């Protein structure tokens, strides 16, 4: 590892710590209010309205809430995919309806996802995705993103591009405190198409 990579790595670690602290200090009410504004913005976007198949993260307590988005996806008869993390790998797998969601087990990260051994259709086997809604710790308004350091989403986007020869449209959801002027990024970090914040 070069010294510039090490410097970049430690800059990311410091920023992650700072952002996690800011998120911890947010009240539930503040998160709920900001999430509502962000969700309304998303629903007004043409790309969301026109998307037939959407991948949506199921939020951790510190992330922008996505339950209203999930309900709207089902109500609008869009096809829904959600992340499933197994070891160092993440795939987007099919979620049939609200009942399917309600029955999902909860992981040690306090998010729902299908069991590792449960057979689910992968987004990489079908016709692809129109839209991927992405969580993160930090974002710039221009679409750069700081994740939690595992590289799940960046790896997924690179895999997706290898299969479909294009990237899906991507939207990051962020609280106001997660928006930064700039972020420490490298060549592997995938830039998002949009970032929505209050």
3D architecture notes:
The chain is of the alpha/beta class. It has one domain: Rossmann fold, CATH 3.40.50.10420. It has helices at residues 3-25, 28-43, 46-50, 67-75, 98-102, 152-164, and strands at 53-56, 79-86, 89-95, 131-134, 138-139, 145-146, 169-173, 194-196. Strands 3-2-1-4-7-8 form a six-stranded mixed β-sheet, with helices on both faces. A hairpin with a 5-residue loop joins β5 (138-139) and β6. The longest helix is centred in the N-terminal third of the chain and has 23 residues, at 3-25. The termini are far apart. Keywords: ATP-binding, Ligase, Magnesium, Metal-binding, Nucleotide-binding. InterPro entries: FTHF_cligase, FTHF_cligase-like_sf, NagB/RpiA_transferase-like. Substrate binds at residues 58, 63. It is an enzyme of class 6 (ligase).
Give the key terms.
5-formyltetrahydrofolate cyclo-ligase, Rossmann fold, 18% strand, ATP-binding, 8 strands, six-stranded mixed sheet, EC 6.3.3.2, two-stranded antiparallel ribbon, 198 residues
Write down how many β-strands occur, each being a DSSP E stretch of 2 or more residues: 8
Q: Specify the CATH class.
A: Alpha Beta
Shape: globular
Strand content range: 15-25%
CATH architectural group: 3-Layer(aba) Sandwich
Gap from first CA to last CA: 38 Å
Strand order of the largest sheet: 3-2-1-4-7-8
SSE pattern, N- to C-terminal: HHHEHEEHEEEHEE
> Whole-number radius of gyration?
16 Å
Helix/strand/pairing class, anyone? alpha/beta
Stretches where pLDDT falls below 50 for ≥5 residues? none
Average pLDDT for all residues: 94
What percent of residues adopt helix (DSSP H or I)?
25-40%
Total count of domains:
1
CATH fold naming: Rossmann fold
Count every helix, treating DSSP H or I runs of 4 or more residues as helices.
6
CATH level-four homologous superfamily name: NagB/RpiA/CoA transferase-like
Report the sheet with the most strands, covering strand number, pairing sense and barrel closure. Answer: 6 strands, mixed
């Amino acid at each position: 590892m070069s010294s510039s990579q090490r410097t970049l790595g430690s800059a990311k670690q410091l920023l992650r710590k700072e952002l996690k602290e800011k998120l911890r200090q947010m009240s539930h009410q503040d998160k709920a209010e900001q999430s509502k504004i962000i969700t309304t913005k998303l629903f007004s976007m043409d790309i969301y309205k026109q998307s037939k198949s959407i991948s949506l993260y199921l939020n951790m307590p510190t992330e922008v809430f996505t339950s209203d988005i999930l309900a709207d996806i089902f109500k609008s008869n869009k096809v829904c995919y959600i992340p499933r993390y197994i070891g160092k790998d993440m795939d987007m797998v099919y979620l049939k309806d609200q009942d399917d969601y309600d029955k999902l087990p909860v992981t040690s990260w306090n998010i729902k996802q299908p069991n590792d051994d449960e057979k689910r259709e992968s987004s990489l086997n079908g016709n692809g995705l129109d839209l991927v809604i992405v969580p993160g710790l930090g974002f710039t308004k221009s679409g750069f993103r700081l994740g939690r350091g595992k590289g799940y989403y960046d790896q997924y986007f690179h895999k997706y591009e290898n299969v479909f020869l294009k990237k899906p449209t991507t939207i990051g959801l962020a609280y106001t405190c997660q928006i930064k002027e700039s972020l420490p990024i490298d060549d592997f970090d995938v830039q998002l198409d949009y970032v929505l914040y209050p």
